[in-house]
């Protein structure tokens, strides 16, 4: 079929139903060009380079005669509804990052992380979150950087004036002896005040900062400081763990009364009528003194004891309820402190035991107990207070016990679209997790349409119950991968602007949400199961259609001979004999295949151009070269950048064998095993599909951990692969996966032992 002219103009409304070929004109690749970065794709040919506001601008100023509108992002394109295509005078950027509204601190981190990922991918390295660690990989798939959440410590400063800046906070901390880089301070405006997050690569910084900043005002205004421990930051279910809040409870003052009756019948009837009934905010217990077998004697008085009365109960109030009683006798109150004075006494007790940050108590709530929440600077401080004061006898309150427990809280920041899709699933698991472990699940929808994230929060007393509920929530938030016959449905078309618009249209039509995970090369689906199956079929049909698309790649006139003699045979060998043709008069290569096939062809063209120079030319052609693995003539050639050629299957098998044995970096074995040139990540990514490449990175991470048994080890909870770093510091911290409190001291000459703290610190750390 001839190419669709409306598709070329960006105006075709038929989509996959169009009878004409949707020929895609590649923007970047000529033979001697460098591929554009992630932020440069999708711009109009006449538009100057667009740089998002969240990245440092290094672009040259636009020429004087350039259309100023080309620097402004097209608002219709951002909504996926621009009909002007290439003729649009405004810029069509592939990713636009705008300044988030107040209260969207999580959005800032996600945009910054996405930018860092894109930068690393283009610089020959990549970053992944594996086993709870942020791992950076370099040439040969070897680990070049490995950092854990426990390598850092973070604090959050609340009640800061809204006029505060990062520079002011930096000077304030420096005046107190806390050396913090300016780049580690992030100020977020929240209403009339601000919240400051400080993250430093120093595990001991948090405790020192909380201790130093305790009761220190900022610009004359009192502030609150608390430690923040990051949770498992992986994918869309990244979370934040907090265990520095203590729930306190104690009994209110109470008293006992006795109601006297002239007849046994009247007393029994009163006891039955009043037992278990509410009196004020209490449930009272009534019992006939002496029991039902008491024998009648003339002039005998029958007494009913009434327990559980408020300490403020009066004789008059009881007479109004017990009208038939001849007399009411009140016993003394258990203690004479007012509820407010009792709360102040508890607050003072907690502040003497640890660095108390805040204390909230409402003495007017009904019930026999008073409940309060106390916040401390860190989870270790909260555990220490619980360990010292648990079941403490309150002297001024008749030796009444003080009940304390650490509250474990896990907060998820969820994309608003994902939240809307999974809300019914979250509602379904709410009663289940509460009945099984008394864990409360609360969700908070975005307050405005500009906010990109919703919040889901789990709160409970038992870490094991919260960890179990956390696993259920993560299963919902992780979604399901779009597959067909156990194979992942993917094409490089999906993460591009037109592909994202296509996924958005599918999501709206099927009433679910399709999330494009470009890093792991997969589509995640959220919503009703039947709708997921229908959407999977449409995605599979689209991939099949994309495999038949035609891409036109412009060629450079001076290198067209190299393209015909060198590049085209390699493209045929890798993608098929009918996959590509070269139109010499028009100087274009016509490729039929997916967007990934187009990227592979572009790479072959660039490599052919760079290898055309004598100093880079291989000594043998692929047809006469010998594979260094099987020692046969090369078939389905794969040529590494060092110039050595492999059979395609031999290369993947050799790399897989080395990866399974933990031999990283993966390097060339040619020239009698003397080359040792590390394969680039681009070469490994081209040789393997998305899941295969991710499996290589995971194998590299496992090998890195296994070579450091004294430094790194796994969480001892079964089926968890969280990694900890041993240190001489034996301070406890909270595992972000199983939520237990652990201590990892390293003992010289011996393996360190994981000490699990049971019952909120009943065992010494």
From TrEMBL:
Residues 1-25, 68-95 form the C3H1-type domain. SMART domains: ZnF_C3H1. One of its GO terms (molecular function) is nucleic acid binding. Keywords: Metal-binding, Zinc, Zinc-finger. A zinc finger (C3H1-type) spans 1-25, 68-95. It comes from the Eukaryota. The keyword Metal-binding applies. Pfam families: zf-CCCH. This is Zinc finger, RING/FYVE/PHD-type.
